[in-house]
Design a protein that fits this description.
This protein is an alpha/beta fold. 36% of the residues lie in helices and 16% in strands. The protein contains 16 helices and 17 strands. The strands form four sheets. Strands 3-4-2-1-5-6 form a six-stranded parallel beta sheet, with helices on both faces. Strands 10-8-7-15-16-17 form a six-stranded parallel beta sheet, with helices on both faces. A hairpin with an 8-residue loop joins β11 and β12. α9 packs parallel to α11 and α10 crosses α11. 51% of the residues are buried. It is found in: Cytoplasm.
């Protein structure tokens, strides 16, 4: 699935329209509290401006109701942030395709950067509107997608804009290129043994992923609250644990399909309340007493999972093993993270909570790849096709 990257096109004297993911957290004073998403786009941004290109950046932020007057969803703070990181002025347009955007695009000079206002302030973004997409497409000579977190979506900036730029170069940025390399290519041709570790609360969120990976992996390890639905499917006692009773039949089917490939926890760390100071006990899987809920895999499961990871050549992890934000129910997630960090395997951490856990535990630099997109990485693990990627130029 190799695609042309931004470095494969001549940008000198040309205008590049780049879709980035500047969906950053803001505090009540509209200060950015975590600028990681801006920093991660820097290699693609610098590739354009260092080679004399003119750069227009577009992104969404939050879920505004198409209300351009709502300052808490404005991308303006990202212009100041990016300006500091680049040590140069970054222009900001107060609209996306209106008079201010048109004037500022026209005024752009080689090596300069402009950020457009939040794409979602325009209803045309979510609707994939052709007129809105055409207006954006008319701004530039080259399209670049560096927003992996939204690659599974069909918003105008992801699909209709590059479609409207037919005949012009359409490429990926370095972030999206890396995600494709790991998530798509590593799964298509994994070194074996290939082990997947799936956690999180709901089987329903991961059904398609489990199904797809059971067909590809040598082992699929299940942790998190969704393990209790599997436990229920095996006739186990789950106490007050979080379960999806309407997914028990499905869990039975997955157990039958998985056979020896599917590894479920053998013990559970449970508590009689959802807090660190509750009464705790470790019990065998399927033996959680009434009044207690499972909050983490137990120590034997953690050891078993770590041993399985140790022999792997490719590891994919998506979803924590327990309530990793609340000691001591972070032990299972820690053990898995440590095993992955110590392993020589190609290790791919899906976005969302697993990415947060690996960062929080300090192992991010000891794994091969931490995905920047939770929903997008899950969709890729499901084997979904991405229209936003497919329509870009092949390498």
């Amino acid at each position: 699935m190799a695609k042309k990257t931004i470095e494969n096109v001549d940008v000198a004297g040309k205008t590049v329209l780049m879709r980035v993911d500047f969906n950053v957290p803001l505090d009540d004073d509209l200060n950015i509290t975590d600028d990681r998403r801006v920093r991660m786009a820097l290699p693609s941004i610098k590739s354009v401006i260092d080679r004399g290109g003119r750069l227009i950046l577009m992104s969404h932020l939050g879920r505004p109701k198409g209300d351009a007057g709502d300052a808490k969803f404005s991308l303006k703070p990202t212009a100041a942030c990016l300006g500091k990181l680049l040590d140069q002025d970054v222009a900001f347009a107060t609209d996306t395709v209106g008079d201010d955007a048109k004037a500022k695009v026209a005024a752009l000079e080689d090596g300069q950067v402009l950020i457009l206002e939040n794409l979602r302030f325009n209803d045309g973004e979510k609707k994939g509107d052709a007129a809105f997409a055409g207006a954006l497409a008319a701004f530039a000579d080259i399209y670049c997608n560096d927003a992996f977190g939204t690659c599974h979506r069909t918003d105008a900036s992801m699909v209709a804009v590059p479609e409207a730029m037919d005949g012009k170069p359409k490429v990926v940025g370095f972030l999206v290129s890396k995600e494709i390399q790991y998530l798509s290519d590593a799964i298509a041709n994994p070194q074996r043994p290939f082990v997947a570790i799936l956690g999180g609360a709901k089987v329903s969120d991961k059904i398609n992923v489990i199904n797809n990976l059971l067909g590809i992996c040598d082992k699929v390890l299940i942790g998190g609250a969704m393990a209790y639905t599997f436990s229920l499917a095996q006739g186990g006692q789950v106490g007050d644990s979080l379960v999806e009773k309407d997914k028990v039949e499905l869990a039975k089917e997955l157990i039958a399909k998985g056979g020896d490939k599917l590894m479920l926890p053998v013990d559970t760390h449970c508590g009689d309340d959802f807090n660190s100071n509750c009464n705790k006990q470790v019990v065998k899987a399927g033996e959680i007493p009434d009044g207690f809920e499972g909050l983490d895999i137990g120590p034997e499961s953690a050891k078993l999972f770590a041993e399985t990871v140790k022999s792997a050549k490719t590891v994919v992890w998506n979803g924590p093993m327990g309530v990793f934000e609340m000691p001591p129910f972070d032990e299972g997630t820690k053990a898995v993270a440590q095993a992955i960090a110590d392993s020589d395997a190609t290790s791919i951490i899906g976005g969302g909570d697993s990415a947060a856990a690996i960062q929080q535990l300090g192992f991010a630099d000891q794994v091969s790849h931490v995905s920047t997109g939770g929903g997008a990485s899950l969709a890729m693990l499901e084997g979904q096709e991405f229209a936003a990627v497919n329509l870009l130029d092949e390498a």
